[in-house]
């Protein structure tokens, strides 16, 4: 797999210079609707999987928790069936610059930035030389950086951990909001509140998103190009904002395959299959048609 070409690297450099100016831009009205990630009859078929927590104790296995053995089994199954892991940046390079993708690409995404992704996940990625995208909730990483705690059952990645993942060369970091990963603040994730004006929503969405971007740039030295919507809760007023802030891709929770024809618009609202624990790899991948 070739590395993304120079123009993609230049986009990253441009974003580093642009970020301090973005919060000065007034909210814009939603005028760009999401583009479905591919047409089911054409394009390169891309599988995107969504994981969350990885824990050894099988009694915690469930909708959002897999065991390390299940994750390793998935990596083996994918490799044995011709799939090759890529990152979202690889998809971006394909759509913007024509950089080739494998015949059967798969993107492994991990939401929420749990410490156990580093503890149990990274060694498996290294063992199988598999790539992954881990999306960080800024307020969690800040909290655990201020007061370190490496309990795998609840701890989140510190900024030092994020840098460690990046330095592996296998992990791309995504933005999962700064403080929108909540259901108890009158708002579901980054969804627009009932009765909230479009302008007010866009202002707070922009503020939260850029706070996460700035924190990741300051503490980890990265500028994510992908935004993962918390809980998959999406308001159309966010669509022009993510573009305005420089994101070249977004992740949804819609469980469908993606079909890329090379149109960059197909990178927004990428579909993902949630991988729950408690199923064998064979049963799970048969269920989703892999």
Q: Per CATH, which architecture of the domain at 42-178 and 252-285?
A: Alpha-Beta Barrel
**Model regions low in confidence, pLDDT < 50 over at least 5 residues:** 1-39
Number of helices: 9
- H/E element sequence: HEEEHEHEHEHHEHEHEEEH
What is the helical fraction, as a range of percent?
A: 25-40%
Report the top-level CATH class of the domain at 42-178 and 252-285: Alpha Beta
Radius of gyration: 18 Å
CATH-assigned fold name of the domain at 42-178 and 252-285:
TIM Barrel
What about the largest sheet?
7 strands, mixed
Mean pLDDT equals 87
Oligomer class? single chain
The CATH superfamily of the domain at 42-178 and 252-285 is identified as Glycoside hydrolase/deacetylase
Count every beta strand, where a strand is a DSSP E run of 2 or more residues: 11
Shape designation: globular
User: Structural class per helix/strand content?
Assistant: alpha/beta
The span between the termini is 22 Å
Strand content: 5-15%
Topology:
Elements: H1 6-22, E1 44-51, E2 53-54, E3 65-66, H2 68-80, E4 84-85, H3 88-97, E5 105-112, H4 115-128, E6 132-136, H5 138-146, H6 159-167, E7 171-175, H7 198-220, E8 226-228, H8 239-244, E9 249-251, E10 258-260, E11 273-274, H9 281-288
Parallel strand pairs: 1-5, 1-11, 2-3, 4-5, 5-6, 6-7, 8-9
Antiparallel strand pairs: 1-10
Helix pairs in contact: 1-7, 2-4
């Amino acid at each position: 797999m070739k590395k993304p070409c120079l123009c993609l690297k230049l986009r990253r450099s441009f974003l580093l210079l642009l970020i301090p100016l973005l919060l000065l831009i007034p909210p814009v009205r939603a005028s760009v609707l999401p583009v479905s990630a591919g047409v089911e009859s054409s394009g390169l078929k891309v599988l995107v999987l969504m994981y969350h927590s990885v824990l050894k104790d099988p009694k915690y296995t469930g909708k959002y928790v897999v065991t390390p053995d299940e994750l390793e089994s998935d990596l083996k199954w994918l490799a044995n069936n011709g799939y090759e892991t890529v990152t979202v940046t690889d998809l971006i390079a394909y759509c913007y610059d024509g950089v080739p993708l494998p015949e059967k690409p798969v993107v492994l995404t991990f939401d929420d930035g749990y410490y156990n992704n580093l503890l149990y996940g990274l060694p498996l990625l290294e063992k199988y030389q598999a790539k992954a995208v881990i999306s960080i909730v800024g307020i969690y990483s800040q909290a655990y950086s201020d007061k370190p705690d490496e309990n795998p059952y609840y701890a989140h990645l510190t900024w030092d951990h994020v840098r460690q993942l990046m330095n592996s060369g296998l992990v791309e970091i995504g933005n999962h909001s700064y403080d929108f990963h909540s259901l108890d603040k009158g708002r579901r994730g980054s969804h627009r509140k009932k009765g909230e004006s479009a302008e007010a929503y866009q202002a707070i969405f922009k503020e939260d998103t850029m706070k996460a971007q700035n924190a990741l740039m300051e503490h980890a030295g990265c500028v994510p190009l992908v935004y993962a919507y918390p809980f998959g809760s999406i308001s159309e007023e966010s669509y022009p904002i993510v573009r305005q802030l420089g994101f070249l891709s977004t992740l949804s929770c819609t469980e469908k395959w993606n079909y890329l024809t090379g149109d960059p618009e197909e990178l927004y609202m990428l579909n993902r299959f949630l991988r729950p624990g408690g199923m064998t790899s064979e049963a799970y991948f048969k269920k989703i048609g892999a």
